[in-house]
Write a structure and sequence with these properties.
single chain; 389 residues; alpha/beta; 7-stranded parallel sheet; 13 strands; 43% helix; globular; binds uridine-diphosphate-N-acetylglucosamine
């Protein structure tokens, strides 16, 4: 059996790593294609090294560009590879432009597509990831669900239950695999925030960084937060670029550590020891939930509501007063015990391999698409953000 995985952006790599290990255990020929959507060492190669991923078999060198340019370039450069290798299955991960582009190429060549992290929805159609997620799910034959609520979204889009496999969260596979190494790094000491409570801040979503006034409000908020607690802020390249083009400046308080993007192990080490995390990253919402670290997500909605209902996450709008008030309440409220979320157990990739190699099924009791007369059952309540709308 030949499986071809397509990845391109930072959050794809953490999802690929455990799947690659499981397929290797079973002797599956696993071809890795890197689209090159992310290309800085700290956004790409560092992750391959730390996650013990083999170097990609193909590198498409797509780089940055508009959504159409990036998606089209991946499609054009990937198509001849899929034609030549004729894989039994193409695996795609998450909801990046690389994910959708690869799914479209494979589906149109009538190659089976497997979507790792299927069925997540924010309900916010202005987000590119929402478009990518819905369309990728639609053309996939194997849908690997990280949480039970995903089945409801897929059913509502008319996807039959027999395509869905509730395998759990591959991000947590990587986290559990890496945690001992990450803790041994003691990143808090390395970045000068050991010995006292500290917060970790990350920011990259277009809704938070592209608009000057929103970005300015958030930077001022982080500066203010740094008066109460030490803040570590690894800055995503997109955010750094927006700060520059908007003529803003990075927060520069004594208790603020502004850093380049961190490696996976350094970031995990910092998250594990944090008193508070303020973020807009989907992966960080999951990681903090698993670790029991209070998390404030700067957004009006999340595609991972289970992190609010079962984990440590709270949504908050990008408003200074709302964030600072929520931070004050959350600081130090670390859960004594880690929340338990169904099938976030470090074995999601093993289940994926069992589906791919042994045709096993991991069924979820998917509700039928709701008829207009009935109120749809919700597996997870919709969280509401803090702050005035
Ligand atoms: C992408 C994904 C997003 C994911 C995020 C994680 C899409 C539409 N978005 O967003 O879902 O949460 O990755 O990081 O696929 N840049 C660099 N070096 C790099 C990569 C990017 O400097 O290695 C800069 C470039 O200026 C680029 C900008 O960051 O234009 C944005 O990169 P892009 O890949 O378009 O989207 P992300 O914001 O990273």
């Amino acid at each position: 059996m030949r499986v071809l995985s397509v990845v391109g952006a930072r959050p794809n790599f953490m999802k690929l790593a455990p799947v690659d290990r499981e397929l290797a255990k079973r002797g599956v020929e696993h071809v890795i294609v890197h689209t090159g959507q992310h290309y800085d060492h700290g956004m790409s190669t560092a992750f391959f090294e730390q996650l013990w991923l083999p170097a990609p078999d193909f590198h498409l060198g797509v780089g940055s560009g508009s959504h159409a340019q990036q998606t089209a370039a991946v499609m054009q450069r990937l198509e001849p590879i899929v034609v030549e290798l004729s894989p039994d299955l193409v695996l795609v991960y998450g909801s990046t432009n690389s994910t959708l582009a690869a799914a479209l190429v494979a589906a149109k060549l009538r190659v089976r597509v497997g979507h790792v992290e299927a069925g997540l929805r924010s309900g916010d159609w202005t987000r590119t990831e929402e478009i990518n997620h819905v369309l990728t799910d639609r053309v996939s034959e194997l849908l690997f669900l990280p949480s039970r609520d995903a089945a409801e979204h897929l059913a509502a889009d008319g996807i039959p239950a027999d395509r869905m496999h509730f395998v759990g969260n591959v991000m947590i596979d990587t986290l559990t695999w890496a945690l001992p190494q990450a803790l041994a790094l003691d990143a808090a000491a390395r970045y000068g925030v050991n010995g006292a409570p500290y917060a970790v801040v990350t920011l990259h979503r277009p809704g938070n960084v592209d608009d000057r006034s929103v970005l300015r409000e958030l930077l001022v908020t982080f500066e203010r937060l740094a008066r109460t607690v030490a803040v570590v802020f690894p800055v995503h390249p997109r955010t750094r670029q927006c700060i520059r083009t908007h003529g803003l400046r990075l927060p520069d308080d004594g208790r603020m550590r502004v850093l380049e993007p961190l490696g996976y192990l350094e970031m995990l080490s910092l998250l594990a020891g944090a008193a508070l995390v303020v973020t807009d990253s989907g992966g960080v919402q999951e990681e903090t939930s698993f670790l029991g670290v209070p998390c404030l997500t700067v957004a009006s909605s999340t595609e991972r509501p289970i992190t609010c209902t079962h984990g440590t996450n709270r949504l908050v709008l990008p408003q200074r007063d709302a964030i600072l008030a929520a931070a004050e309440r959350a600081l130090g409220r670390r859960s004594p015990a880690r929340p338990v979320i169904e099938r976030w157990d470090g074995r999601a990739a093993e289940r994926i391999a069992r589906v791919v190699c042994d045709d096993e099924r991991f069924e979820v009791d998917a509700p039928q698409a709701a008829t207009p007369a009935r109120t749809p059952r919700r597996a997870v309540a919709i969280p509401q953000p803090l702050g005035a709308g």
